[in-house]
Amino acid sequence: MSTAASGRILIDLFMTLDGVAQGPGGTDEDTSGGFRFSGWQAGHPSSGVGPEVEKGMRQLDALLLGRRTYDIFASYWPHHTEGESGEIGTLFNRVPKYVATRDADFALDWEGSTRVGDDLSAEIAAMRENHREVHVIGSVDFVHTLLAEGLFDELNLWVYPILLGAGKKVFDDGALPSVLTLLEPAKTDDGGVTLLRYGRTEKVPEVGTFD
């Protein structure tokens, strides 16, 4: 782990073209609010997502998750450390896991898990001191908090050419007005899935009028 205060917070999300990030991976992942399309990502195979996800995990040395995503990961990854997904499973089991919840009694049965949320700004500052890359995966409700408070460094979006209409969206009305910078050219695979990597800046949107 790095001892310099240079660690970064990266948000990794799968989302539809209309911004829905709810329940991408399985039919029973998140059906809250009557959501009918849980599992939409699994229903649209992509040749490019897997290699890019693995590439993005190479520097990961901590996870920061919302409660629902933590429960899903904790029930799955400890049992998947071999085979095709074994490398990621081994990594997730090894690194520290920070779980955002104000419930002091929330069960943290996955080894290496710690609760955060009492003072998120200070806790994330501590993560930057102790880790090189902290990845927030899924956790769309928690992501709203990070976007509202500007507590992230990089936003990685895998955008699928799907329209769902209803569902939890990445950006709500609480997002902090800000200007992001594209870190690399967009990458699109043969299924039409596009990877967009944005970095946070301290710039705010300016307004004007076209003559």
Fraction of residues in H or I helices: 10-25%
**H and E string:** EHEHHEEHEHEEEE
Q: Any idea what the shape is?
A: globular
Query: Ends: how far apart?
Result: 53 Å
The radius of gyration over CA amounts to: 17 Å
Specify the CATH architecture: 3-Layer(aba) Sandwich
Low-confidence stretches: none
Report the count of strand segments: 9
CATH superfamily: Dihydrofolate Reductase, subunit A
Count up the domains. Answer: 1
Q: What is the level 1 CATH name?
A: Alpha Beta
Structural class: alpha/beta
Strand content: 15-25%
- The CATH topology is given as Dihydrofolate Reductase, subunit A
How many distinct helices? 5
Biggest sheet: strands, sense, closure? 9 strands, mixed
- Mean of residue pLDDT? 92
Protein name: Dihydrofolate reductase family protein
Pfam families: RibD_C
InterPro entries: DHFR-like_dom_sf, RibDG_C
Your description of this structure?
Helices cover 23% and strands 22% of the residues. It has 211 residues and is α/β, with parallel strands linked by helices. The chain has one domain (8-200): Dihydrofolate Reductase, subunit A (3-Layer(aba) Sandwich). Strands 1, 2, 3, 4, 5, 6, 7, 8 and 9 form a nine-stranded mixed β-sheet that branches. The radius of gyration is 17 Å and the shape is globular. The termini are far apart.
